[in-house]
Amino acid sequence: MNKIKKVQLPLQTLNLVVGFMIWVLISSLMPFITEDIAITSDQIAWLTTIPVILGSLLRIPLGYFTNLFGSRMLFMGSFILLLFPVYFISIADSFADLLIGGFFIGLGGAVFSVGVTSLPKYYPKERHGFVNGIYGAGNIGTAVTAFAAPVIAANWGWTFTVQLYLGILAVFIVANFFLGDHQEEKVKTPIVQQWKSVYRNKKLWILCLFYFITFGSFVAFTVYLPNFLVNNFELDKVDAGLRTAGFIALATFARPVGGWLADTFNPLVLLLYVFGGFTFAALLLSFAPSIHLYGAGCLVIAVCGGTGNGVIFKLVPTYFQKQAGIVNGIVAAVGGLGGFFPPIILTLLYQINGHYAIGFMALSQVALASFIIVLWMYFNSKIFSANELMQTTPLGIMVTNNKGNIITVNPAFSKLTGFSLKEAIGNKPSMLKSGKQSQEFYDQMWTSLKEKGFWQGQIWNKRKDGAFYLEWLTINAIKDDAGEVVQYAGFFSDITTSEQKEYQQEIN
User: Fold this and answer.
1) Is 70 exceeded by the pLDDT of residue 345?
2) Strand partners of residue 417
3) With 0-12 CB in 10 A as exposed, 13-18 as middle and 19+ as buried, what is 1?
4) Contact by Cβ (8 Å): 108, 52
5) What is the strand order of the sheet 468-479 is part of?
6) Cα–Cα distance between 490 and 223 in angstroms, integer?
7) What is the mean pLDDT of residues 116-144?
8) 9, 135 in Cβ contact below 8 A?
9) HSE, side-chain direction, 13 A CA sphere, residue 430
10) Residues 6 or more apart from 350 whose CB is under 8 A from it?
11) How far apart are the C-alpha atoms of 232 and 350, rounded to whole Å?
12) CA nearest neighbour of 17 among 255, 313, 185
């Protein structure tokens, strides 16, 4: 890997930091903006979430265009375009100005799809979870703005604070021009063809649901917390910014950890913990607790959301190796939209009921439903793996119930014995009996099965055509949770030829 290729992970991660810094600019400065511009509570909800719309919808085409033109062109172009809405916000003097500027700074959140599509090209598949986790940690940019913007605005005003971001964008436009990879691998499959190959796959929409919750919650809490903590708990504006920054930092740190864990352990098992934690934390928040318990609930959301984000982008290339670009864009887009609705819904519920409990309770129920879906996927994957083993292994496999009736066999069984699946089911293993073993032999076999739970050894059996063959057979007793035998599974291979060779060598 040459020097330019080695610098792509840190460069693109820093690009994401800058993009996310821009993305939450308005929500982080909202307590200061409302001092100069008259804005209602309804309008605040729209202003803090409107950047999420473009930041979500553009993720699909940006992921696709990254494959066509490379990350260098996409990051440079995005940052050049962001110069205009950032400057427009700095001179805004009305709700309409902020709404227009806020919509277009959503492009800062959309650049997420660029790196998550580009970076896996530089690393082997077994490192994709960790690499995407490191890149995803670039959402620390939201914490940088949530922490720094209020501090700067308190001293020099929010207009000056926004204009500082123009300089940051200029620096990274230059950095990408010189350090971006000119020779990045391009993929030119038409977007319609890619879409047709994935949109019917239910795993795509399941991953979208999961990311809608994990990343959507991260975005929603990021834009919702600064103003909520000031209004609901009467915290100082800088204090609210610091607490929000802490939430973002924890979620950001958890993301590469989640990616690394997904490279090491079963991602579906990790998601069970993620959605279990979400369910508990959302239930806690629904009871409108004190600031201390509310903070604890938010921290659990941060850990689970960050970990889940890292795990999900390990699963994308696992399920969609050839369509990772378009799928990354779709999943990322839906996740971004997951941050758009909650602040607006919470605001409406508060106006109707005077509290936020129903909104958090809804989050807990969606998280619980996701937990159940993951559980189903986990057991379905185990069943699929077992079935794949049955169908592809060269070993003959025969499974009987506890009474000795055959309930299934695999293709290798039919090839070795001549008996088809239909002919075998319902019969006894004695259909293969050669008559060459004594009753004492079988008594010892059953004694071993009862005492040890398995038997292994050589046995002569007979094929459907009457030919005798010697097999190496292993029988395992399969027990339920109560320790009762429910099935027997036999695995065997034909060793007749090898035994004959050994006998011939002994004679010679």
Assistant:
1) yes
2) none
3) exposed
4) no
5) 406-409, 396-401, 485-494, 468-479, 454-462
6) 59
7) 85
8) yes
9) 7
10) 356
11) 11
12) 255
> For residue range 466-479, what is the model confidence (pLDDT) as tens digits?
999 999 999 999 88
pTM (predicted TM-score): 0.66
- Give the residue from 25, 45, 39 showing the smallest Cα distance to 104: 25
Q: Which residues pair with 459 in a beta bridge?
A: 471
Least confident residue range of 276-285, 339-348, 434-443: 339-348
Q: What is the mean pLDDT of residues 127-153?
A: 86
Rounded to whole angstroms, the Cα distance separating 22 from 13 reads 15
Helix ranges, 180-234 (H): 191-198, 202-233
- Please report where in the chains the tokens 């001549």 appear, as a residue: 418
CA separation, residue 226 to residues 112, 142, 145, 242, 306 (Å)? 23, 12, 11, 9, 19
Q: What are phi and psi of 396, to 5 degrees?
A: -70, 135
Check whether 38 has a pLDDT greater than 70: yes
Alpha carbon distance 353, 333 (integer Å): 31
Q: Which of 85-94, 405-414, 447-456 has the highest mean pLDDT?
A: 85-94
Distance CA 56, CA 341 (A): 12
Cβ(243)–Cβ(48) below 8 Å: no
Q: Is 162 exposed, middle or buried (0-12, 13-18, 19+ CB in 10 A)?
A: buried
Q: Do residues 304 and 281 make contact, with C-beta atoms less than 8 angstroms apart?
A: yes
Predicted local confidence at residue 503, as pLDDT: 40
Cα separation, 194 vs 65, in Å, equals 13
Q: Is the dihedral of CA 6, 9, 12, 15 positive or negative?
A: negative
Q: Which has the closest alpha carbon to 397: 420, 418, 414, 422?
A: 414
CA 315 – CA 321 distance, rounded (Å): 10
Selection from 106, 88, 107, 108 nearest residue 49 by Cα = 106
Q: How far is CA 174 from the centre of its chain?
A: 33
Retrieve residue 40's tokens. Answer: 């209602």
- Please give the distance of CA 18 from its chain centroid, rounded to a whole number: 23
d(CA 60, CA 15): 18
